[in-house]
Amino acid sequence: MRCLPCNKEDTAMDTALLVWSNIIPTCGVPKIIISDRDSKFTTEFLTNLYDILGTKLDFSIAYHPQTDGLAERMIQTMEDILRRFCAYGMEYKDHEGKTPALVKKGWNPLFPVDHLKKDLLTIHPTAKDLHEMWKRACDTAAKCIAEAQEFNKQRWDKSHMKPDFKEGDQVLVSKINFNNLKGPKKMRDSFVGPFTIIELIGKNAVEVKLTEGFSRKHPVFPVSLVKPYFQQEGNKFPSRKKNPTPPERVEVEDSPGPVKKIIKARKIRRNGKDQRQYLVRFKNQTADKDKWLAEDAIIDGNLHLCRFRASRRTVKSHQ
C-alpha cells in the first residue's frame, strides 16, 4: 500500500504526475486502475493518457463503496489515524490478523517508546527465518481476508434478497445521495421516479432513463438503491397520490463551474443515433478539466453555441 501526500486543489495533471513519479518507477505501469468517478479521473486528458499507457480505468458505481471495499476501508482507517497521529504500519488489521509492517517486512519497527521498556533491541532474524516469516504472514493475511469476506457475504445474504430486474421494468430510485434538492430534507419522499431500466450492468447495478429534472445525474445505480415500481390499481386507495413523483430541479454536483467557452465540436454515434457533442472550457479551470457535453447539458448553452458558431464563421471567412 502506498499513500501519497496531495492537495485538495490538485488537478488531473498533478494526479498524473504523482502516478508517473511515485508508482510507475517502482511498480511499473498498472494494467487496471480502480477509481471512483472523481473529476480528476474522468477528464478527457487523463483518460487519453491512460489509453496511451495501455492502462484500463475501471470506475466504480456511484454510491456503491462495496466495489472496492478494502480500499474504502483503508481510507477510513487512514483518516482515523491521521486524526490521532498514529503509525499506520503498526495497527493490527482484522482482515489480516497482523500489522501491515509485519506482513510487508516480516517485523515491526521499534518506536522511541519501545526503548523505555527494553534495554536491548530485538535481534534481526536470519534470511531463512525472515523468508519463512514473510510467507507465514502473507498466508495468514490471505486466509483472514478470505474468512472476513465470507463472513460479510453470509451476513449480507441473510437480510437481502436477490433482485429480479429486467430491461423495461419501471423502478424507483432512493434519494439518499441526491443532494441540493428543493424543499426540506425531512419532508421529501424517500424514493423518486418511476424510471425505466434501459440496461442491466452486471448483477449489482442498473442503468435507468432519467427524466428531465435528473438528466445531469449519473444514470447507473446499485440495486441496493433501487426498488420496483408498482402501478396503482384503479380507485382501490383513492386517498393515495396517483401521479408519479414530478421531476425536481437538481443542481449539478460534479460541474467544474460556469462555462467559459466552447472550443470545438464532434459527432459521435451512440445507441444507433448520431449525437453532436461540444468540448467545453470552464471558468477558472485548466485545460485538463475540459469536458465533452451534449448541447442540452451545457449551462447557458444557446449563448455559448452562438458565440462558438460565430467564431467558426469568422475563421472560415478569413481562410
TrEMBL record:
What domain of life does the UniProt record list for this protein's source?
Answer: Eukaryota
What does the record list as coiled-coil region(s)? none
Kindly list the GO CC terms recorded for this protein: nucleus
> Per the record, which residues fall in region Disordered?
234-256
Pfam families according to UniProt: SH3_Tf2-1
Question: Which residue numbers delimit the Integrase catalytic domain?
Answer: 1-83
Residues that span the membrane, as ranges: none
User: Record keywords: RNA-binding included?
Assistant: yes
What is this protein called in UniProt? Integrase catalytic domain-containing protein
Print the organism lineage: Eukaryota, Fungi, Dikarya, Basidiomycota, Pucciniomycotina
